[in-house]
Amino acid sequence: MDLTLDQLSVVTDGRALVRDLSLHVGSGTVVGLVGPNGSGKSTALRCIYRALKPSAGTVRAGEEDLVRLPPRQGAQLVAALAQDGAVDLDFTVAEAVALGRAPHLRGNQALSARERELCVRAMDRLGIGHLAGRGVLTLSGGERQRVLLARALVQEPRILVLDEPTNHLDVRHQVELLSQLRGSGLTVLVVLHDLNLAAGACDRIGVLSAGRLVTAGTPQEVLTEDLVEDVFGVRPTVVPHPKSGVPQLLYSIHPDSEESSPSCA
Ligand SMILES: Nc1ncnc2c1ncn2[C@@H]1O[C@H](COP(=O)(O)OP(=O)(O)OP(=O)(O)O)[C@@H](O)[C@H]1O
């Protein structure tokens, strides 16, 4: 099922946070959304998982208008991993993951054997099976992030949107999470700050700046030295990954000799 943002705008207190954003995520593809801090990435994502109502434009899952769909039906199609998603209540990990089934259950209906198995498999897949009986409040940031992803997966959505899901994850878990997204077969829109991870994980990348889509295309088309300098204000050296050929960005980090040296008056 594809995901389409069509001329999406979000205006708050007279300020346009997102302006005329149109972006298509093909069925089963992974699209990255990148851009500087404050460029509107989370705001756009919040419209997709319906934490925010757009001021104008539409969000479609296939032919369904997500903005108008009843919440339960929407949650059967779209799962979200929000930025620093909170798990405030002291559920066990197994209970928190099982919450992902809520959109498919009626009232206090118990999980079926298939659903229980689904939860166990999701926890194993994310390497949190051994934590099943632990309280989520006792987890590290990275462990909690993986619980949230397991919860999103057991929701069995068609579309998955994720806001900086690699936050808190060590490098192994970053690579594993993005590999799992690629292998999931789901339609994925993911906000990432790390442009190198985005280049490796995404079929296409959309670049936001000041609420507007600057460009969208394959990593090779989008991640050029000029584009990154224009949008992010820092010029990288772009080299092809020696194995995959996807663009990888290198930065020179050096002290500004004039301004950053401590004065020795
Ligand atoms: N409810 C709100 N009221 C007013 N301004 C808001 C509101 N929500 C977000 N903003 C502003 O909208 C702009 C876009 O915010 P958003 O969180 O979408 O950016 P982002 O690209 O996800 O940023 P980051 O990379 O820092 O997470 C920011 O300037 C933010 O301060």
From TrEMBL:
It holds the Pfam family ABC_tran. Keywords: ATP-binding, Nucleotide-binding, Transport. CDD domains: ABC_Iron-Siderophores_B12_Hemin. InterPro entries: AAA+_ATPase (IPR003593), ABC_transporter-like_ATP-bd (IPR003439), ABC_transporter-like_CS (IPR017871), P-loop_NTPase (IPR027417). It comes from the Bacteria. Residues 3-235 form the ABC transporter domain. GO terms for molecular function: ATP binding; ATP hydrolysis activity. This is ABC transporter ATP-binding protein.
